[in-house]
Amino acid sequence: MSDAISEAPRADGAADYSTAVPEAPELSLAAKIEGLLFVSSGAVQVAHLANVLQVPAREIEAALHSLAESYRQRGIRLQRHDSRAQLTSAPELSLHVERLLGLEATTHLTQAALEVLAIVAYQQPVTRPHIDSIRGVNSESVLGTLLRHSLIEEVGRSDGPGRPILYVTTPEFLRHFGLNSLGELPPLGLPVMSPSVPEEGASEATSAEDRGPT
């Protein structure tokens, strides 16, 4: 047909039907890490990121630091826990996130739970006998509550008598209290959480949660 669009002949006489697609620029290491953390369901080990991206761990650490700095004025944060990293929403958005997702209000912890959590946070890894010696009461039931809420986790056993379980805080602990890392915990001697550990002279009555199963 006369209306047909003809291809301009190539130099070699053959028509060129290919469509030129510009190549996408190479992503920076920080951008690659950001994408991997975005699709991950939880915290990712730095060593695993280094293995996936085939770069040294020190380069991963440098890129993570760059990402953390870039998020300071944004709605997401880079949360670090030991050698793990993950993306979270900014703690200032917690109420809006709960409203958006239809979540219940953040779990309210009892005073006993906050006491135990403070001990674990500042002295981790720590055993139940050590926690009991500080509080003067049995903490088994409280530890069970914190485990159910994923605020602490077991990481092995002590070499001491009876080889008691060692407990540490989790990334969920950081998210719950709006921290990006354990380094943001306030110095000892300042209020850690509200309510905090009871003052000297407070009632010696033991709560049902402290007593646990008889």
Q: What's the topology here?
A:
Layout: H1 29-39, E1 44-45, H2 46-53, H3 57-70, E2 76-81, E3 84-89, H4 94-101, H5 111-123, E4 126-127, H6 128-135, H7 140-148, E5 152-157, E6 165-169, H8 171-176, H9 208-211
Antiparallel strand pairs: 1-3, 2-3, 4-6, 5-6
Helix pairs in contact: 1-3, 2-3, 5-7
Protein architecture, described:
The protein has 214 residues and is an alpha+beta fold. The chain has 2 domains: 29-93, Arc Repressor Mutant, subunit A (Orthogonal Bundle), CATH 1.10.10; 111-211, Arc Repressor Mutant, subunit A, CATH 1.10.10.10. Helix content is 38%, strand content 13%. The chain contains 9 helices and 6 strands. It has helices at 29-39, 46-53, 57-70, 94-101, 111-123, 128-135, 140-148, 171-176, 208-211, and strands spanning 44-45, 76-81, 84-89, 126-127, 152-157, 165-169. The strands form 2 sheets. Strands 1-3-2 form a 3-stranded antiparallel β-sheet. The protein has a 3-stranded antiparallel β-sheet with strand order 4-6-5. Strand 5 (152-157) and strand 6 (165-169) form a beta hairpin. The radius of gyration is 26 Å and the shape is elongated. The termini are far apart. The relative contact order is 0.11. Mean pLDDT is 81; it is low at 190-207.
Question: What does this entry show, briefly?
Answer:
The protein is α+β, with helices and mostly antiparallel strands and 214 residues long.
What is the percent of helical residues?
A: 25-40%
Shape: elongated
Radius of gyration: 26 Å
Continuous helix count? 9
Query: What is the name of the CATH superfamily of the largest domain?
Result: Winged helix-like DNA-binding domain superfamily/Winged helix DNA-binding domain
Largest sheet: 3 strands, antiparallel
Helix/strand order, N-terminal first: HEHHEEHHEHHEEHH
CATH topology of the largest domain: Arc Repressor Mutant, subunit A
Poorly predicted ranges: 190-207
